[in-house]
Write a structure and sequence with these properties.
alpha+beta, Creatine Kinase, Chain A, domain 2, 293 residues, 2 domains, 10 strands, four-stranded mixed sheet, 10 helices
Length: 293
Amino acid sequence: DSASYFDLTPVDQGEDVRREIVVALEAMGFQVEAAHHEVAPGQHEIDFRYDDVLTTADSISTFRFVVKNVANRNNLHATFMPKPIYGINGSGMHTHQSLFANGQNVFFDPDGRWQLSETCLNYIGGLLRHAKGFCAITNPLVNSYKRLVPGYEAPTNIAWSERNRSPLVRVPATRGVGTRVELRMPDPSCNPYLALAVMLRSGLDGIEKQIDPGPPVNRNIYKMSYRERRHLKIDELPGNLSEALDELEKDTLIKETLGEHILKHFVEAKREEWFGYIKHVSPWEVERYLGVY
């Protein structure tokens, strides 16, 4: 279809199938909070209610299974590939995170900076410090890094904001029990158990070590010059899967979180994927070089 953000029938030609998916999910106990067409053609978003980390990982796995099966039943193919089409927005898995103790959201502090507790700020600090190290887990495909480019609402810079969506971490405006941080880099091709584990461990490391995330960056980072970003000490995410694997192998905390067995087999499999990719001659290369050289 040619629909865009929040378009309706008849422009949104996937509405009936999306409704069927929602009905199936609700029959399985999901609390679906929103379902709508997204920015790109044929792109849809379905949000379900938060839960503890393990239940959420289970829910993500079940969600993908249900979506693919309902689509197949309607002679359609649902893909969670991060960037299936060049030139339009890819698909992310923005992950909202909060911590509770005794029924209270510990990220909220009515008297804190931006009404955020020091615990929340330190959690953000942990996410920022380890983002390069866990990027290969949250964005595990060669194709993942075709999404993480400027201009398509996907983060490429390691910073946080309580206002805009260009940094890696955004704090939505809601406060009180709904106070949370949104990590915008993950994509839906990731293993949710590994991805949520490294996110949580990174945030907790920030709390344990009282990591300061620095001031929020409330400007559009995509419009900053390289010099401006360096002046503000804004680092960048890995540019491809190989760089992400290099960063993973340098991050002791993330390696310990994964464990030796998973780390070894994950890195070996992903290195093989990368080497297979770099040997491939793409249509872009043929089109650009064949008639010139």
